[in-house]
Design brief:
six-stranded mixed β-sheet; six-stranded antiparallel beta barrel; 20 strands; rod-shaped
Length: about 375
């Protein structure tokens, strides 16, 4: 017979039977409760140990060595630096106005010439003979007119005949002036002060009308030509003078005055041509030289400017650390315009704040600071 089929009949037997049948479940429940209590105790102990350890670390942390800079107001400029090139103030292509053979070329390429200096001569014989012929015709026409004029006053010849003689005189005078002009054009002269960049003539060469003679460049003043981006055109319109540096002349800086600003872009790059007038009495600035134009779009006086590397950016927040009584304090800042490696701070800092510029990346709010150096100027510090 199965023991489970035996049912207790007495009260005591029933109690013993109930306890015996539920004993495994009670033991399991007790074990579960014990495990939970032990786990909670372990976690509490772990947290206590971690807190004690963190407190010990904080207590044991040494001060952070730092370099600080007392802030002072300064001027910050929003500027752009653009490339450009030098062009001559004037470039003249000289051509022959008459035909003839070249008999003399006094000038040579590279010469500095004044207006009226002789560059070349064309053979004059034919034009001198033409002038003499024109002078003879003019003298004859003048004599005929004066004789007929005297006769006309006596009423001997009609008015029409006198007018014809006057017309002949005027025509002869025009032919004489033209002959003198043609003879004068045998001497090719410089129309302006400048430098002979190119000479296309040589002795013996026969020129026809409009044949090239050479090129003159006016460089006592020159143009610095710079392309202005569309985004900066509004600011550049308000500027009258701009500094340019010339690399070929040991980065010499020259101030140019705005001469011309194109009303439309000249290239597909959407650059607007700007020309700056530069004085060049020494002739040291030559066409073709590379320049860089420093254009100051905006200037802020009495601004707080700090090194850009002193700003920490984390989670869309920008902040710096300042030193107060040997303790680091975090200051959120808002930034403005930049000039080189300096950036304007529009809010968050005040003059005489001791800005931490070295050691700030190892700091947190309230950390003790050991100031190893206080800078009077940022020139004393180099990254």
């Amino acid at each position: 017979m199965d023991p489970q089929d035996i049912q207790p009949t007495t009260r005591r037997a029933k109690t013993v039977f109930y306890i015996w049948s539920t004993l495994p479940r009670l033991i399991l429940l007790a074990m579960i409760v014990l495990i939970v209590v032990l786990a909670m105790g372990i976690m509490k102990k772990h947290d206590s140990i971690a807190a004690d350890k963190a407190a010990g670390v904080i207590i044991e942390r040494p001060p952070v060595n730092a370099v600080v800079y007392p802030l002072t107001p300064s001027t910050v400029r929003d500027k752009i630096n653009l490339p450009g090139s030098i062009e001559p103030w004037n470039s003249l292509e000289l051509t022959a106005k008459i035909s003839g053979a070249i008999v003399e070329v006094p000038a040579k390429e590279g010469d500095e010439v004044k207006a009226g200096d002789i560059l070349a001569r064309i053979e004059e014989d034919d034009y001198r003979i033409a002038l003499q012929r024109a002078e003879a015709r003019y003298r004859l026409a003048k004599a005929n007119f004066e004789r007929d004029k005297a006769v006309f006053s006596k009423g001997v010849i009609p008015v029409a005949e006198l007018e014809a003689k006057e017309t002949n005189l005027l025509t002869a005078r025009a032919d004489l002036d033209n002959a003198r002009l043609q003879l004068n054009r045998c001497t090719i002269k410089a129309p302006i002060d400048g430098v002979v960049r190119r000479l296309d003539v040589k002795v013996g060469l026969f020129l026809s009308v409009a044949d090239p003679v050479g090129q003159l460049l006016q460089i006592d003043k020159v143009k610095a030509v710079v392309g202005i981006p569309e985004s900066d055109i509004a600011a550049v319109r308000k500027i009258d003078t701009i500094d340019v540096s010339l690399q070929a002349l040991n980065d010499m800086v020259v101030t140019g005055s705005k001469h011309f600003l194109s009303p439309a872009p000249d290239t597909t790059a959407r650059l607007y041509k700007m020309e700056l007038q530069l004085d060049n009495e020494s002739r040291s600035i030559l066409p073709g030289m590379f320049v860089r134009a420093e254009i100051v779009k905006r200037s802020v006086a009495n601004a707080i400017a700090i090194p850009f590397y002193s700003v920490i950016s984390r989670n869309d927040e920008q902040f710096v650390f300042v030193e107060e009584d040997g303790v680091a304090h975090k200051r959120p800042v808002k930034l403005g315009i930049m000039e080189n490696w300096m950036v304007e701070v529009t809010s968050g800092l005040s003059p005489r704040d001791n800005l931490v510029i070295e050691g700030h990346r190892d700091m947190e709010e309230g950390r003790e600071i050991n100031v190893v150096k206080i800078l009077s100027t940022l020139d004393e510090y180099r990254l």
